[in-house]
Amino acid sequence: MCQHDDPQQKLPVLEHRLSDLLSHKAGPYLQIEADLLRGVSLRSTLRGLGWLWRSHRFKVPDATWRRQWQTSRPVKTYKVFVSHTWKTSGLPKVLALMLSSCWWHALASWAVTCAAVIVVHAYVPSLPMPFSFQCRVMGFVAACPLAPWTLIAGSLGLIVGLFGGPYYPHSLWWGSDSDMCFLDVACIHQADDELKERGIYGIGGFLRHAEELRVLWTPPYLSRLWCIFELAAYRVANPSGRITLAPIFIEHSVLFLLPAMWSASWSYWLALTIGLQDYGYLMSEALPIGFAMLPVLGFVHGLRRLFCEKHRLFDDLQSFKLESAECTELFDHIFVNSAIQKWYGSTEEFEDFVKGPLFCEISGNSTQAVDVPLQYCLLLSTGPLSVGMDETISLWAGGASTPIASWLFC
Question: Which UniProt keyword terms apply here (predicted)?
Fold first, then answer.
């Protein structure tokens, strides 16, 4: 709950600020000085395993914050305003953002390494293939040499692409401004008290210059008063702006499944090397596939827990109450509530806005906001595709014709 410490001492300051607020049509709720408009690349905030997200703001030396401030640069607009709550620890948000921001780098790196393995196999026939499996496909019967080079190279490429994505040149893919964002701890000076205060109470101005408000939703989000202020201010400041719901449990679900799919692929490859083909279809096909699915089953419990958050998300929106939101300062509480009253007329009207138009906008009255995107499905397929390439290379090395060798992908 809000801490109302020494309210009498704060009243003169409050009265002065409120009179200033009411003297403007839109109010300085939505104003910001041009020299405070600074932005950073969203991917750059993930460097150092996302230290910006994981560090406690009061435990970082001022010199570090000054260096961080210098890495931001003046902007006129933001592609994205990242709205989140510091009540949620940083690591879960870092992992989610790493996947959502660097999935393309991971996919491209995986594709390049797999292609390199295929090229090496084509031009270096003597590449070691220490294992073998008895193949019986479309009338072709042979003991084919087998090696996990695509599985090894593909998994390494995927990891390097995912965790190396924050360090890739910004202009390499979509341009230097493609992911220019506002992140409070990076774009508001943390070592200068005056600049920090001007930045905090100018949040509405930052929102006014953002093309998109991306809500990095975690369970405590709607319990934080400043998060609610950002939702309220953005729709007033940018009536045509885009509000995007980004629940981190989607990325967490993919991060649960991705190693499971790779474990399943490795399990299938190991089943091939054991030589179960001599024991009929049940042992040679059904058993390896079933064995390969065992790691996936181990992740079901975690997925069930994560998707419970999906239902909590919709429940929180539809049962939203402004009075349950928390803050740490009396002035912040009155500042935010006065802005909401000015924009929406009353607390009840704002609550109706959250439960009605805002809920419909960010959820689309469907599960679209919490569906698994196509790019994540492609990432999940990298493990099975890698083991399929290894099996195809094995068939080629064993003397199979092209139609037979490519049967896995046809």
Answer: Membrane, Transmembrane, Transmembrane helix
| E-strand stretches of 196-267 | 212-215, 242-245
6, 251, 282, 351 from 330: Cα distances, Å: 9, 36, 69, 21
Which amino acid, 342?
Answer: K
Structure tokens at 206: 């930052």
- Six-digit token string for 54: 């994981």
Q: What are the pLDDT digits (tens) for 331-385? A: 788 888 888 888 888 989 999 988 888 888 776 644 455 567 899 999 999 999 9
Burial class for 311, CB neighbours closer than 10 Å (0-12, 13-18, 19+) = exposed
Cα R_g (the chain), whole angstroms = 27
Whole-number Å distance between alpha carbons of 401 and 410: 14
Q: pLDDT digits over 3-62, tens only?
A: 444 444 555 555 565 565 445 444 567 888 888 999 999 999 999 999 999 887 668 888
221 touches 248 (CB < 8 A):
no
Say how far apart CA 200 and CA 211 lie, in whole Å.
20
CB atoms within 10 A of CB 290: 13
Domain range list for the chain: 28-409
**If you count them, how many residues does the chain have?**
410
* Enclosing H/E stretch for 132: strand 131-137
- The predicted model scores a pTM of 0.83
Q: State the Cα angle at 343 between 338 and 344, rounded to 5°.
A: 100
CA 208 to chain centre: 24
Contact 180, 78 (CB under 8 A): yes
Q: Mean per-residue pLDDT for 213-227?
A: 90
Q: What is d(CA 189, CA 177) in angstroms, rounded to the nearest whole number?
A: 21
